[in-house]
User: Which sequence fits this backbone?
């Protein structure tokens, strides 16, 4: 079995996810000064060697998983063997820089990466061109034999919410949670950005040698946008569910690439936008 990628330890400061502040609270016509918890938001720079490739605003914690997941879901690496090491710099950046060392067969090209990011963020690009661009990354249709029951799906939001430790104190974080077909929680990650939470899940799976996640369902808070869909597809996830609505491009992508996409998963109700055959009554 291939050895897991080396994820060097992070300094304690990089694990800070909650800040405390003094606020004025209004209630029933009265005011008082109280202490309130805030979700921390700080920039994380990801480098390959000395080349900066991305800066994302994130909640500190699981930064190495975030960087590893980002490298895979953006097509910079294809598998764990192409990522030799990851380490956090504990210099003046206060742990807000992660440096990756890639294997020679990763064929990383900084100029190609810049072009891909520009295409993904260009507001004028059409849906078909966007989907074609991720097809070129070698994404295959996820496991067609995976099934999950409606009852199991309806129980996922409660399990996700009960496991959100930081959200419970701050009320300000998104979450992504990975489940088995029987509804067992495998891992949950929180972040100020829902796409970062997904990257942390994928980075965890990369380190644990669990990719592709072909027998899992992913539940995310918030909406199911295109970026969440393409990151999930890169990890081989067959079922993605969210508590809110997906975007039109997310639905189009899920349908064309064979993913089950579920929205408005709340209580005993949900809407299936794609891949209904994976859902058992």
Assistant:
């Amino acid at each position: 079995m291939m050895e897991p990628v080396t994820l060097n330890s992070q300094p304690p400061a990089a694990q800070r996810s909650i800040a405390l502040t003094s606020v004025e609270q209004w209630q029933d016509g009265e005011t008082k000064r109280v202490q309130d918890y805030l979700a921390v938001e700080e920039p994380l720079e990801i480098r390959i060697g000395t080349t900066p490739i991305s800066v994302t605003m994130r909640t500190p914690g699981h930064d190495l998983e975030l960087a590893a997941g980002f490298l895979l879901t953006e097509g910079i690496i294809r598998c764990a063997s192409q990522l030799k090491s990851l380490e956090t710099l504990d210099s003046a950046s206060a742990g807000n820089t992660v440096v990756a060392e890639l294997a020679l067969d990763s064929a990383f090209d900084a100029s190609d990466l810049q072009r891909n990011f520009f295409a993904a963020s260009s507001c004028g690009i059409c849906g078909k061109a966007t989907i074609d661009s991720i097809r070129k990354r070698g994404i295959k249709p996820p496991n067609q034999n995976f099934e999950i029951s409606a009852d199991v799906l309806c129980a996922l939001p409660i399990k996700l919410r009960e496991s959100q430790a930081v959200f419970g104190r701050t009320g300000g974080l998104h979450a992504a949670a990975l489940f088995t077909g029987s509804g067992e929680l495998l891992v949950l990650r929180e972040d100020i950005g829902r796409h970062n939470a997904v990257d942390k899940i994928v980075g965890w799976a990369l380190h644990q040698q669990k990719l592709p996640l072909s027998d899992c369902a992913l539940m995310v808070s918030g909406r199911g946008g295109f970026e969440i869909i393409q990151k999930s597809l890169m990890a081989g996830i067959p079922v993605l569910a969210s508590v809110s609505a997906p975007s039109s491009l997310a639905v189009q992508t899920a349908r064309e690439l064979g993913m089950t996409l579920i929205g408005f998963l709340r209580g005993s109700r949900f809407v299936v936008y794609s891949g209904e055959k994976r859902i058992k009554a």
